[in-house]
Amino acid sequence: MADLLDRLQVVLRDRYRLERELGQGGMATVYLAEDLRHHRRVAVKVLRPELAAVIGAERFLTEIRTTANLQHPHILPLFDSGRTGGDEAIVGDDFLYYVMPYVEGESLRDRLSRDKQLPIRDAVRIASEVASALDYAHRHGVIHRDIKPENILLHDGSALVADFGIALAASKAGTRMTETGMSLGTPHYMSPEQAMGEREIGPASDVYALGAVTYEMLTGDPPFTGSTAQAIVARVVTEHPRPLSAQRHTIPAHVESAVLTALEKLPADRFASAAEFAAALAGARIEGRTTAETPRARARAAHAALSRPGAGLLAGVLVLVALAAAAGWMAARARAPRPVVARMTMQIPAQQQLPSINDPIAALSPSGDRLVYTASGEGGVSRLYLRTLDGLAPVVLPGTENACCPVFSPDGNAIAFADISTGAWKRMSANGGAPVAIPVRAPHRIVMARWAGSAEFMASLVDGSLGLVRADGSVEVLARPDSAAGEQSLDVMEVLPDGSALAVALTSFPNGNVIVVGRNGRRHAVPVGVVNWAGWSAGHLIWSPGGGGLLNAARMDPGSGALEGPVMPLGIAAQQTRGSRPRIAQPARAHLAYVPAQPLTLVEVNRQGQVATLLGLPRSYHNPRLSPDGTRIAFDFEEGTRDVWILEREDTTITRATFTNDGHDAEWLPDGSGLIFASVRGGRIGIFRRLFGNDEPDSVLVDDGPQTTAHAITPDGRTAIVVRFPGSTSGTDGNGSDIGTMPLAEGGALSMLMATRFDEAYPALSPDGRWLAYVSSEAGRPDVYLRPFGTRGNRILISPDGGSEPVWSRDGRELFYRTIGTGDPQLVSAVIATSPALRVVSRTPLFSVGDYEPAVPHANYDVLPDRRSFVMVRQGRLAEFVYVQNWAEELEQR
User: Fold this and answer.
1) Which of 94, 569, 587, 801 is deepest in the core (most CB within 10 A)?
2) What is the Cα–Cα distance from 188 to 209, expressed in whole angstroms?
């Protein structure tokens, strides 16, 4: 950030003298500066580079001029705006900025953080002042779109609304904002229509946001909260806020009524203008407008009615009228019954552990009355458990030891699953009974299967193709991956009603494009962009966008793959481990089940399992890596775009290390002078190196083949140890991930160390560069092995009961790993001796890692130099499924 400040000081030196950074937001960085021309203190806001690229300089400058004409006592004025460079500007010195008065005081967020709840008169006054500013802007055709406490400044107690211009400019970027994953607005204050991605947003959306801010000023919390942005959005779309009076009895009834009216789901049910909202807060009756009735108002009305003479007779008449109306309503319902949409949770017993990476984790029967799922239970062995809607507890299905990936047959009478100990697929009766192997003729082998009839399966095969497996085991290959398009494999997701297969053409695991493959081998692309999961239910395609996020749905013609309706955000956030697919059950015809997303935090855990939070703000933290001196932590997460960030452990400040929009899986250079990381540029996959102080990273390897990521560097800094994913045509047979080496220099050739039909991944090189730990699936499960690096020699098994994610201590004495296949996975310390022979001296379980997110194909944690604690990514326990009964009816209502 200091480097950015220095560059800005140079390019703005003729107009402003920048003093220091004031803060950062989702859209801009703010600097305190002196206006040299007018000798006054100002705030200079510089747009984030990725947002500037999406909006475009011309659009930004045009729309900022529009808002510069907004002159209102409660709107923060705009002094200046511009572009520091031009079309010929040097890369890295071209910024979009705008200048506002520097307000001595605080934001509404600052006051709420300090006081929690505001006096009612202050809250009403501030809300009324903001409403006045919004009404003025709306009458001039400007919608703010991002009203929140951070954008309301308090100057001498009066409210000033900031950031009109950037909101207007960003909103007109349209689909480009969506394509980059960036969004305008803050989940706590988004109106339902904005949360659902509607293109046309009107004044009613700002009224809703102001209602949410007023709600928070009065109660201390926004109307809807949640552990993740997705959870908040889901509540905004589906739930109603708690009454204010239940939280603070001194709130006047007319104030509560005004706020609840502003928070109505439908824009038409809110106030017609911000001015009406202000008037209602003041107690005025709005002609032609019915405001939300408060709980106290209903109680008072009922008490008054029953206290009047003749009230008993009147009440009796009303009861009869109500009964008659109810009878008529019930008769109408009997003539045209509509399914009831219901949501419920299915708790997972405490002794069971849901897997983090198996796909699919569960399946619903076609009728939606049974859920079968994979979990580790008694003895730490993975089994299938069956839960019925009318049952109190799940029951284990005998004979399903080491099972994963269950799917129901179309009639619901049978279940197919994979045996992870052998790689074979089996089938059994859904009512119990001995499993039998699904026959498949060599050289074919099933990787993932979906029922295509009573005894046939659509299957992803080990060579990446998609085939029809018949009852006698014969296989008809229907389609192969298009290597020219970068496809690695065709991952079957579902069999559609016409018998064709819904699949994801994998380009970079777990992401790819949705296709439909018919039994004649013809394939059709489905235009929904990059996804990491897709399913079919109730005539709709449902999918999770690549990189994760809320589920979407759209009606689709199964024969052609053409969408026949609008894309509908569902507000559903399923749990998803980085590098894996979301935890969603194979959908039923009209029902849905999924594991809800759990928040992630970056934490430090000592050897006794005691936790200290490093970064508590829930984000998709991933791949924490400590610098050689242990003072900094590199990690990546998504904040609009995915990039690598660096945390200073001493003061917990974070700075961005990459600006690629897709930086991830970083590793430190041995001397701490920079990082290498994976990225995609111009549709090409590569590993890049960033030396601190350089504006652009140097390309180390660019490869048009499958994804390659680096996860260890030799002590001399010259060579990276990489993992190559399936589908490569250079040095691997395409049947599993492989490990190789690559010189850290332009044009360096990839050389394979281990390339077999099994998965080899998770490379970890000892500090002295002599020993390579890695994980292989050759024994039918993940195991950690140790072998000499660079020379021949015997290898040894580190994890006798299965393991993954090896990490070395800095002194090379301990090798840590995560156990696999146990009901309560542990972090284990293995003490290693290398003389007179390589051996494991001891293995000591340290603490449970069931609440810490794993990753593929590398460790998702690191050990501090003193070996006393670890940096890890913590998630809540996966303890339940959310079951949505008759969710197809909800789709129809939308």
Assistant:
1) 587
2) 8
Distance CA 866, CA 604 (A): 13
> Which secondary structure element, helix H or strand E, spans residue 642, and what is its range?
strand 641-648
Tell how far CA 53 is from the center of its chain.
23
Burial class (CB in 10 A: 0-12, 13-18, 19+), 690: buried
Hey, what are 742's tokens?
Answer: 């690559």
Q: Which of 135, 146, 636, 665 is catalytic?
A: 146
Extract the tokens encoding 442.
Answer: 């060599």
CB atoms under 10 Å from CB of 889, counted, come to: 15
559, containing H or E segment? none
Supply the pLDDT for residue 289: 55
The answer to whether the CB of 637 falls within 8 A of the CB of 621 is: yes
359 is annotated as an active-site residue: no
Contact 459, 467 (CB under 8 A): yes
CA dist 134 and 338 (Å) reads: 41
Residue 182 one-letter amino acid? M
Could you tell me which of 203, 202, 246 has the C-alpha nearest to residue 223? Answer: 246
CB 260 within 8 A of CB 244: yes
Distance in angstroms (rounded) separating the CA atoms of residues 520 and 530:
25
For every residue of 744-774, DSSP letters joined together read SSTTPPPEEEE--SS-EEEEEE-TTS-EEEE
Length of the chain: 894
Q: Give start and end residues of each alpha helix (H) in 154-285.
A: 164-171, 175-180, 192-195, 203-219, 229-238, 253-262, 274-281
- List, for the chain, all residue ranges whose pLDDT scores fall below the cut of 50: 1, 87-92, 173-183, 295-336, 727-734
User: Do residues 794 and 775 touch, judged by C-beta distance below 8 A?
Assistant: no
Q: What pLDDT does residue 829 have? A: 97
d(CA 408, CA 406): 7
Question: Which structure tokens are listed for 499?
Answer: 């018998």
DSSP for residue 563: B
Count H helices, E strands: the chain?
A: 15, 54
Distance CA(740)–CA(654), nearest Å, equals: 32
Q: Crossing angle, helix 203-219 and helix 108-115, to 10 degrees?
A: 30
Query: To which H or E segment does residue 634 belong?
Result: strand 632-639
Report pLDDT for 888: 77
Which residue spans within 313-369 are E strands per DSSP? 342-347, 362-364
Q: Are 350 and 584 in contact (CB under 8 A)?
A: no
SS3 886: coil
**How crowded is residue 58: how many other Cβ atoms within 10 Å of its Cβ?**
9
Return d(Cα 311, Cα 308) in angstroms, integer. Answer: 5
Q: Please say whether the beta carbons of 723 and 715 come within 8 A.
A: no
Phi, psi of 192 (to 5 degrees): -55, -40
**Beta-bridge mates of residue 189:** none
CA dihedral 600→603→606→610, nearest 10 degrees, is: -70
Which residues have CB under 8 Å from 208's CB, separation 6+?
Answer: 189, 191, 192, 262, 263, 264, 267, 270
CB atoms within 10 A of CB 34: 16
Nearest to 638 by CA among 625, 621, 624: 621
Peptide bond into 788 cis (omega under 30): no
DSSP annotation of 550: S
What is the structure's pLDDT at 573?
76
At 313, which helix (H) or strand (E)?
helix 311-335
